Amino acid sequence: MKETQKFLVYRNSGEGIIRYEGYEVPLKPGYTILDALFYIQDHFDSTFAFRYSCRGAICGSCGITVDKIPDLACKTQISAVKTKRNPIGLPEFHFGEHPNWDKENEILIEPLPNMPVLKDLVVNMDNFWKFYVEVQPYFTRDYNDVAPESKQSPEEMNAIERLVYCIACGLCWACPVNATNPHYLGPMQLAKADRFLRDSRISDEHEKEILERVLKDDGVLACEKYFVCNRVCPRGVMPGTAINDIRKKMEERK
């Protein structure tokens, strides 16, 4: 392993002043991108802003863009960035500046695409969570611990297991539709809707309410089947496939 790694990092004061700063970080075995962000904050600039929480690829807080690929900072090994197999067919992400980036030797760090930047790598996720609430990702039954509320067969659980793995990290908002349509519900939100639509415990009334919301023009109908969301999801949720599942459900109800 190299003793140090050069980074080129997107910096934004939050007042529209954008720049890219270079940093050189000493390496240790097992160092992740998140470790490098901490080092930059601790040793170069204490005002450097980024999000994190669990450090175990479960909370989804540390989503950023690494070498133009949306990823989780805590999950990404520094030593693997230049050699790992990256998703194909991703759109180009631009953040207001074109950095003078040495692709061979520098790791480029930028915020998540298609969300307003508040400061450095911290993005405004207000719409992300607003649209999440709109798909009603919860049960409406009164709690009474009586089936079908509290029990599922293994087969019923298997039907939603992949969707349950979603950690709401926001990487799937790299979708080109999110780049051009600020009203689009988004891949995560529609995958969450599918997770509840496919759940055996949902009430008929709640199922109808979710379907009415996601079948509007800014929901399933706005998806253009790029499947970028499938390729960048760190948990294998495959939101694009979930959106297609809702389409099939819509056809069945006609």
Q: Secondary-structure element sequence? A: EEHEEEEEHHHHHHHH
Q: Order of strands in the sheet with the most strands?
A: 2-1-5-3-4
Helix content range of the residues, please?
25-40%
**Major sheet attributes:** 5 strands, mixed
What global shape is seen?
Answer: elongated
Number of strands: 7
Return the CATH class of the largest domain.
Mainly Alpha
CATH superfamily of the largest domain: Alpha-helical ferredoxin
Topology:
Layout: E1 4-12, E2 18-26, H1 33-43, E3 63-66, E4 69-72, E5 106-110, E6 117-119, E7 122-123, H2 126-134, H3 154-158, H4 161-164, H5 176-180, H6 187-197, H7 204-214, H8 228-232, H9 239-253
Parallel strand pairs: 1-5
Antiparallel strand pairs: 1-2, 3-4, 3-5, 6-7
Helix pairs in contact: 2-6, 6-7, 6-9
